[in-house]
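Try it yourself: sequence plus iron/sulfur cluster, in.
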Amino acid sequence: MNAEKGMTSPEWHGGLYVHVPFCERKCSYCDFYSVENRSLVEDFLSAIEEEIRTSAERGRGMHVDTVYIGGGTPSVLTLPQMRRIVDALRCWHTIDPHAEFTIEVNPGTVTREALSEFRMLGCNRLSIGIQSFDDAELAFLERIHSADEARGCVADARAAGFENLSLDLITALPGQTVEGCVRSLEEAVALQPEHISAYTLIIEEHTPLFDRVKEGRVVPLDDARETQCYETTMAVLERAGFEHYEVSSFARPGRRSRHNSAYWNHTSYFGFGPSAHSFLWKGGDAQARRWANVRSIGAYCERLRVGQSPADQEETLTPDQLFDEAVFLGLRSDGLDMGVLEGLRAEGLTRRQRETLREICEAGLAFRDGERVRLTPKGYVLCDEICARLLVS
Ligand code: SF4
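Structure, out:
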């Protein structure tokens, strides 16, 4: 995470992310870029092969520790289609044989056979989008699967030999009671996954759910109930033996998501596919670069077809931007590493920032843990406000 470390490290480590922009049907709350129309799958595969090929030069020397195929719904692809992507990644990048390799699956789109095939591709971790174990809540979210199918998917994943499963849940749904929230959490825990991501529902603009809220047809939970759901989530999962290591992420010991942790630790990664983001900060380079691909599958395919970059915006991050990101990402996850922060800006922390840290520790929102300052559960609830107080720019 620090410039010096980046410049002197003999090995440059990083991750690869692939965004598969297709879904069987859009969910009401989702603002990820994906389309239901799959007529462009073949064009997308050719384009992504080309993007991966052209990234090889920039990624030369990068040792890949994590691969993540997400979306959208990667599990709508057939095995030969998925294989094309994985083959391209292996052909143009140096992937560690022990890399964490995750594929996101939607319980409504996979069979046990498909999951066994993912294993054959080298996938060793699944992230299963369950969201709720209540069929009425799943219908409200416009998920394509039932709670029973979600349970079946977990059983199928185990039968296919997966020893590392992450289950996604969404809490604080309109009308949800704390008891309802606990029921889904407890059911997830009972399935004994290695990891749970429990997100608080965010009503994103440009989604059907946002429109329904605006029209008064859906009433979101009030702040107090939402906070109660989040506090309950932390309590239930910590009691069940999960380590809370990021705002929404809970892991059994040793089972944190290595890929997501790398994002929060300023590790380099390439993101392939429409709307995917990349961040590169490689050994020997003082500058960190970030770019985002165009958010349109048609434009993405066309640009790669004619030999253009699919990147829409690219920027070099200033030391202050890197510092702010380290504050934001660190607070949300493994805590602020004071040594790293001071390495990012020559002048180190300002007096105001030191003062703020002292105040949040005294208020019981954070605590010192060696070189780090970590949030307490009370602090996680106020994470955004605390970040805002600590930022430089
Ligand atoms: S399946 Fe996932 S990516 Fe697709 S619309 Fe639903 S939430 Fe979004």
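One thing you can check immediately is this: The pocket of iron/sulfur cluster is lined by residues 23, 26-27, 30, 32, 34, 71-73, 106, 129 (CB under 6 Å).
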